[in-house]
User: Fold MFS transporter from Microbacterium maritypicum.
Amino acid sequence: MASFAPLQRLVISIAVLASFVTFLDGTVVNVALPAISRELGGGITTQQWVVDAYLITLSALILLAGSVSDAYGRVLVMRIGLIAFGGASIAVAAAFDPLTLIIARAAQGAAGALLVPSSLALITATMRADVQSRAIGVWTAFTTGAQLVGPLLGGLFVDYLSWRFVFLINVIPIGITLLLLSRLRLPEHPRGITVDWWSGALCAIGLGAVVFALIEQPNLGWQSPAIWIPAVAGAALFAVFLWRQQRSASPLMPLWLFRVRDFGWGNLATFFVYAALSLNGFVVGVYLQQGAGLSATAAGLASLPMTILMILVSSRAGQWAGRWGPRIFMTVGPLLMAVGALMLLLVSTDFDYWWQVLPAMIVMGLGLSLTVAPLTAAILGAIDENHSGIASAVNNAVSRVAGLLVVAMLSTIVGGTLDLDGFHNAAWFTAMLLVIGGVVSWVGIRRNPAAPAPVDAAATGPTPH
Assistant:
């Protein structure tokens, strides 16, 4: 970062570290799930809640957090988020039963929602033009690095120490970030922006109730009042949230954005593609340990080829999309990933990673590399610069809600148990989601290939899990 001024280097360091902990926490958890289940009990239901409790609050509150950051100041909101995330991480590590763990994970997600929008807002508020683009590029490289090291670190801690240390990884970068934040002097004052707290509550409670019903339905059945009442109430509350967005003077999610063709269709493609990625990440991380008998470290390394290929190829795919338009890449990429997902059907009781899993990870990694930058460039390129922040936040929220819902439906997808048959069911379902994502892109995306694609904008899009 030698080309940046001292203040800019400080801002970038803070933004990178603050976001790093939230992305790291999203990647380390999958390899720790079997160990958590063995120690605390609860089986696949506990594993689902460990992932989804975090995603519920993170996805439901990330839009609200952007408004709070604008209203009360990015530095203050980030400081609160860091302290809360550190405290919640310690609570997760100290959990003595599934319920305590799930509550602490929900608190982690709420704190994480404060960090991502405020960290990017620090960059966009203090830098302009080329410097801002380069700063976002640095931010992307390091947050992508969290994906690279997360599963490996998680596996090493699970195998050689305890799953509890997986969640304590965050404490050191949080401490460093708070120290750096104390050195940052920015003129921030309350701006009189109205925060729609009611919309935030409607979104969070509505999503939470629906996810509760989806996760617990295999245990209690849809006929149980404990299932259908939360399902109906949650759907109604989310419908009220959408209704409120149409009429609010300061909506958390401006619905007019979805009337812009490439933004609306691009987010629909995002939903299916990222639902597939979340399902694949969960199932591969858990099955390779519980079904194939790999160590947590080996399971963490299993999907590493996907991340490496994304780092090597995705920026070039963004350049290609700028030349030929994103539509072809947003179509071919998911279809190639679908082929990779179907290759996981080769996994058998006579397990061999090198022939049954590695080829699928390579094919999926190539498809993912062709998809991510064109997808986000198409979505953000459809919206003017004045609304790019909220457009990015909405796209992030869509990707996280997709992962939230598909993990909630896991028991139904795999058939109740994540054995070999369940793993194969998940592979079929993942491929189906990816095919739909590719078809949606082909049908819906219409940006003129001659128009320049904002490749750097891909940095603010959702990070794959």
